[in-house]
Write a sequence for this structure.
């Protein structure tokens, strides 16, 4: 602020409006971005160059191995041997292609594959229903995906002779099917169960709190591998003699309970972020505990912890590969078994199989990650949190 | 009985009818700290009471005991025909009939203004959604913000949010309204719009207990002004007498500090 005249005066009155102006050049736009983010200081320049060098070292060989030098077709190992192809050999996709049925379905009987495909289709339909922002009746979609679909999937996969679907024993299931079944069961069980445990841990009733804390701390304190081995070998010992739970069900329960404990702590973080005023506001209107929890607290708490929830889901999804150590034929296990096949014994077979697994897991996890970001953005539009609520 | 309590009884009788709130010898402790001491207060139907006092004097705690947001360890509080006990059903019964407006509004940020106003009528009073929305719109018009009905609380100014909070309470059709420093968190420019709403509510005969430092409001609408210090009711009088002729030394000091 300037004042006219030689002596500074306390009085000032604006008589003209200062019009908005464009920012000075090179403070916005792509060039400014480059300068700001990549080349702003000597250290930054050095880091940029180092980054470019790492990209140069890693990316071209990966592209050459996975795409350029890859072998796409072939009947057996000869296709992927250096001598036969007459050039350095990359990934042996011919091996993956010839084993794809096993990787996806395991030993599921040939005539019944349509049942698995139908489950895949229902799953895809549910996901699209939930992901597509403008799809109608999202509430029905959620009920379908988390309520009807799991039941339908069990009936279809396991069979129900009464309606003409012969039993397919779980020991025949394998590959992607098992991976998805374990992951999906873990996700569908752990979210509601985790919410209940988190509420229990904050309960005013000492017994409820004690049970919740004990449960959470027990499962968090034990490695998943221990849980799986315990579920596999010790669970039958604890149960009455005539009860022998299904071999796939055992690790399924273990994974679900394990994930619930982690989910509970994630949700508890969200519950703690809800200001006391929200509870008081709800109480002053006469809402009871469950109404307050369901209508006021959880919608806000779960929204806050979406990143944590999805993080747990992603961890759970990858951890399903551990079930292979208790003899469950998930994707990793089917790949490892196939590697022993002498008809495909080449130097690149193992790398190709594991690359396939890596790509599969990455696509699934990256998809979940992107979905969570999209959902955060969608839920954040239209309103922000009250600034005065602390 | 203390003299304050006798005064309370007289005033309630003066207005006629049975008191709608009776606080009898209420004491409250936070651990060892004695926050409310010997509170005796009868509030008549339609009475407007302003409670003031230095911070930490227990005035908020006092009105929060009336809808049991705070527990008390000794004494009795009777609201309408219901005595507050540990029975949660009883407490919810009282809370349905007693509206409360908070310093920080406590609106639900994930719901629209309209949903904020209809949530409790729909779930607590079991009123059909259409009807609850019509009622809500009526009250939003009364607090002069019907056009904001489909926005979220975070998009409104502080004054607007507080008016929504008042409308939200009114949607439950309460018999008593408690105000816990409703204008303390507002920008100066927003105080008047909220006070105007409260004045018009008072003019319609709502029973109101208001914790505030807005002495102009106290002069304008209060039937009685209560001054609290150190967890006790120190002085209670009509606003005219209270402001022009305070008796207690502590009251004189307090008024000297806030009325420049």
């Amino acid at each position: 602020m300037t004042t006219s005249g030689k002596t500074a005066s306390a009085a000032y009155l604006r008589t003209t409006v200062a019009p908005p102006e464009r920012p000075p050049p090179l403070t916005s736009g792509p060039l400014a971005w480059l300068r700001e983010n990549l080349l702003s200081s000597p250290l930054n320049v050095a880091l940029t160059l180092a980054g470019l060098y790492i990209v140069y070292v890693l990316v071209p060989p990966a592209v050459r191995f996975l795409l350029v030098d890859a072998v796409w077709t072939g009947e057996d190992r000869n296709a992927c041997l250096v001598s036969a192809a007459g050039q350095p050999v990359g990934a042996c996709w011919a091996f993956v292609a010839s084993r794809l049925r096993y990787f996806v379905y395991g030993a599921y009987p040939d005539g019944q594959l349509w049942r698995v495909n139908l489950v895949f289709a229902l799953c895809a339909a549910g996901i699209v229903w939930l992901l597509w922002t403008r799809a109608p009746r999202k509430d029905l979609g959620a009920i379908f995906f988390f309520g009807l679909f799991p039941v339908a999937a069990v009936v279809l996969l396991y069979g129900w002779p009464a309606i003409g679907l012969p039993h397919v024993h779980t020991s025949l299931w394998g590959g992607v099917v098992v991976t998805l079944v374990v992951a999906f069961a873990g996700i569908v069980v752990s979210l509601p169960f985790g919410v209940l445990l988190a509420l229990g841990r904050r309960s005013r009733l000492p017994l409820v709190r004690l049970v919740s804390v004990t449960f959470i701390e027990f499962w968090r304190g034990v490695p998943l591998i221990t849980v799986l081995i315990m579920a596999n070998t010790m669970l039958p010992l604890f149960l009455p003699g005539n009860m022998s739970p299904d071999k796939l069900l055992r690790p399924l329960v273990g994974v679900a309970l394990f994930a619930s404990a982690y989910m509970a702590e994630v949700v508890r973080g969200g519950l703690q972020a809800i200001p006391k005023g929200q509870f008081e506001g709800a109480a002053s209107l006469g809402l009871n505990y469950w109404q307050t929890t369901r209508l006021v607290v959880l919608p806000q708490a779960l929204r806050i912890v979406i990143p944590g929830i999805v993080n747990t889901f992603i961890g759970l999804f990858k951890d399903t590969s551990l079930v292979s150590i208790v003899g469950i034929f998930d994707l990793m296990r089917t790949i490892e078994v196939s590697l022993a096949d002498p008809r495909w014994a080449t130097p690149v077979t193992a790398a190709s199989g594991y690359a396939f697994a890596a790509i599969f897991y990455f696509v699934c996890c990256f998809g979940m990650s992107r979905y969570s970001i999209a959902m955060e953005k969608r839920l954040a539009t239209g309103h922000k949190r009250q600034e005065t609520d602390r | 009985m203390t003299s304050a309590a006798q005064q309370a009884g007289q005033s309630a009788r003066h207005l006629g009818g049975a008191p709608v709130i009776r606080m009898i010898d209420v004491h409250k402790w936070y651990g060892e700290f004695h926050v409310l001491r010997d509170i005796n207060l009868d509030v008549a139907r339609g009475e407007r009471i302003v409670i003031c006092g230095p911070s930490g004097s227990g005035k908020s705690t006092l009105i929060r005991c009336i809808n049991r947001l705070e527990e008390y360890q000794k004494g009795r509080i009777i609201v309408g025909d219901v005595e507050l006990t540990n029975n949660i059903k009883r407490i919810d019964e009282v809370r349905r009939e007693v509206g409360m407006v908070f310093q920080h509004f406590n609106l639900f940020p994930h719901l629209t203004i309209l949903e904020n106003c209809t949530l409790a009528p729909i779930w607590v009073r079991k009123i059909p959604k259409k009807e609850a929305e019509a009622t809500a719109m009526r009250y939003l018009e009364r607090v002069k913000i019907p056009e904001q009905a489909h926005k979220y609380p975070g998009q409104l100014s502080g004054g607007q949010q507080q008016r929504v909070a008042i409308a939200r309470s009114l949607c439950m059709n309460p018999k008593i309204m408690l105000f816990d420093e409703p204008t303390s968190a507002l920008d100066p420019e927003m105080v008047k719009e909220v006070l105007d709403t409260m004045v018009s509510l008072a003019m319609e005969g709502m029973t109101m207990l208001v914790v505030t430092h807005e002495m102009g409001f106290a002069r304008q609408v209060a039937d009685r002004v209560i001054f609290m210090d150190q967890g006790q009711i120190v002085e209670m009088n009509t606003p005219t007498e209270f402001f022009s002729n305070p008796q207690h030394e502590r009251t004189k000091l307090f008024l000297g500090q806030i009325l420049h």
Observations:
- The interface with chain B takes residues 277-278, 280-288, 291, 295-296, 299-300, 303, 382-389 of chain A (CB under 8 Å).
- Chain A has 15 helices and no strands.
- Residues 382-390 of chain A have pLDDT under 50 and may be disordered.
- The two ends of chain A are 36 Å apart (CA to CA).
